[in-house]
Amino acid sequence: MEIIPARGVIAGIIVFDCLTTYTSSEARYRRGLTKKKLFPKEHTVIGIENFSDALLLLFRGENFGKLVLEVA
C-alpha cells in the first residue's frame, strides 16, 4: 500500500498477450544468456533456515533482481 502515496507504478507483461512472438522472443533471450550478453540479476539467500529473512528482504524491497532461496 506504500506505492499509492508515493505515486509509484507497477508494470509487467502478460505472456498470453504476446503469444505470437513468445517463441521467437524466448529463443532470442536464451541465445543472449548463452553468449553471455545478458546478465540476469539474482539475489541468492542460502539455507532454508534463512527463509524468514529472505521473505522480509522481498517485502521490504531490499533485494535486487530475482530473489532465490537456495536449499541444499
Query: What percent of the residues sit in helical stretches (DSSP H or I)?
Result: 25-40%
Spatial separation of the terminal alpha carbons: 35 Å
Over the alpha carbons, how many angstroms does the gyration radius reach?
16 Å
Please count the helical segments. Answer: 2
**Low-confidence region ranges:** none
- Order of helix and strand elements from N to C terminus: HEHE
- Shape designation: flat
**Which secondary-structure class do the elements indicate?**
alpha+beta
Strand content: 5-15%
Mean pLDDT: 87
Largest sheet: 2 strands, parallel
Instruction: Tell me the strand order in the biggest sheet.
Output: 1-2
How many domains comprise the coordinates? Answer: 1
How many strand segments? 2
Describe the structure concisely.
The protein is of the alpha+beta class and 72 residues long. The protein has helices spanning 19-34, 51-60; strands at 42-46, 66-70.
What does this structure look like?
This protein is an alpha+beta fold and 72 residues long. It has one domain (15-70). It is 36% helix and 14% strand. It contains 2 helices and 2 strands. The protein has a two-stranded parallel ribbon with strand order 1-2. Helix 2 links the parallel strand 1 (42-46) and strand 2. It is flat and about 40 Å long. The mean pLDDT is 87.
